[in-house]
Amino acid sequence: MAISDSREVVIEATPQQILDVIADVESAPEWSPQHQGAEILDTDDNGRPGRVKLKLKTMGISDEQVVQYEWTESTAGWTLISSSQLKTQQARYTLAPDGDKTRVKFEITVDPAVPIPGFVLKRAMKGGLESATDGLREQVLKVKKGH
């Protein structure tokens, strides 16, 4: 059964600065506890990640995924190509400038390949949403300061 959720955060940075951090998928393990590793398999015409192989661990469940990223000036998202734990996954960041800040909405839908108790799935989603928003915000601010 597919489950969807979303979360918003305001980041004191430009959409471009935020997209640059999202595009640096190989640094994701530094700011997202679920990410164990990332390898870019190919890039798009702008040099941003296209197909990416991810090693993830959530709630004690390990997974290797291949996802396809899609980029615009105000969005970054991915669609699952293959996974040992999920049937489908769709995720998207939508960025909206708000003065000198940016409002970032993260939306995700996952459909586990095996039955997972609802409370476990909800807790895993909550952790993923927190990393995708609060973790991203911390990383953007760190990069912006040049640390």
TrEMBL record:
This is Cyclase. It comes from the Bacteria. Transmembrane segments: none annotated.
